[in-house]
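RECORD TYPE: inverse folding
INPUT: structure tokens
STRUCTURE:
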């Protein structure tokens, strides 16, 4: 039976399996390679080791396909897409060095987080061929080439473009379906990110036309044997529940989809944050937490 208090103030007294390993397969963004993150990547890895992690996935954001997709902080820093591409090359050199340096203490998976703007499929496939990551996280941060999660202002601009939140949600889940089908990412990142600035998201996700798209996407994830990201970044911001929301998590469990914690950390202080709580939630829903799947690229 699910202890429903977890999404309304975590019950730290709930007994969970002591054999569960701490893990994050979506996170480790650092100030070295991401303008909206902090700290050195090696320092972040050392924090995971200090916390007792035996496995961790580092998933730096891919560079933009062109200057059209620069974030405001990158524009402010007067960076170009070429500059960020160079940083990304440095990231893969460094993560592979760190992977071997700390091999006796922690298993590091060198990954990357994708985007879904115009030209993303060829761009991501080229990056995979060039850098040979251990795996990818498939994320949707853009709808109709507008980055909706960067600010409430951009979120509202996108909803105005579609005419309603409902239509924006539908387009998001359609884009996500396309991305999953074309990229087959090992991890599907923050599945319901589209709710980020929507106070009424629980009711909206339950609307029949939106819920149908959610079920369709979950069925695709299951058919491809992919993994869903239990993304903890909302908790770091003081929000009540992670991505994915409780209703979708319940459906994922019923469909026997694998779900793995991801701290989506952007600095030392966030590394590993709330992963212990995530394990409690997942175990309460009946998910396997004693043996996590090792990331891999699906051909």
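DESIGNED SEQUENCE:
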């Amino acid at each position: 039976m699910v202890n429903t208090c977890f999404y309304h103030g975590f019950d730290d007294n709930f007994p969970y399996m002591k054999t569960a390993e701490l893990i994050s397969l979506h996170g480790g963004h650092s100030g070295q390679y991401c303008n909206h993150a902090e700290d050195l990547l090696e320092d972040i890895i050392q924090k995971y080791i200090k916390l007792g992690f035996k496995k961790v996935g580092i998933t730096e954001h891919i560079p933009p396909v062109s200057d059209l997709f620069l974030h405001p902080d990158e524009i402010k820093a007067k960076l170009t897409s070429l500059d960020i591409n160079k940083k990304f090359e440095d990231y893969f050199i460094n993560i592979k060095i760190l992977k071997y340096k700390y091999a006796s203490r922690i298993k590091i998976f060198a990954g990357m987080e994708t985007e879904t703007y115009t030209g993303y499929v060829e761009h991501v496939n080229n990056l995979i061929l060039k850098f040979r990551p251990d795996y990818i996280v498939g994320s949707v941060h853009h709808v109709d080439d507008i980055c909706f999660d960067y600010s409430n202002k951009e979120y509202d601009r996108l909803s105005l473009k579609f005419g309603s939140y409902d239509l924006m949600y539908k387009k998001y889940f359609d884009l996500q379906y396309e991305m999953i089908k074309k990229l087959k990412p090992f991890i599907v990142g923050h599945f319901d990110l589209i709710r980020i600035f929507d106070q009424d998201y629980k009711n909206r996700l339950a609307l029949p036309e939106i819920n149908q798209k959610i079920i369709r996407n979950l069925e695709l994830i299951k058919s491809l044997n992919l993994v869903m990201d239990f993304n903890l970044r909302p908790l770091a911001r003081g929000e009540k529940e992670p991505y994915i929301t409780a209703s979708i998590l319940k459906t994922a469990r019923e469909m026997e989809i694998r779900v793995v914690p991801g701290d989506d950390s952007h600095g030392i202080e966030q590394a590993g944050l709330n992963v212990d709580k995530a394990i409690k939630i997942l175990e309460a829903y009946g998910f396997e937490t004693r043996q996590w799947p090792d990331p891999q690229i699906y051909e």
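NOTES: The radius of gyration is 18 Å.
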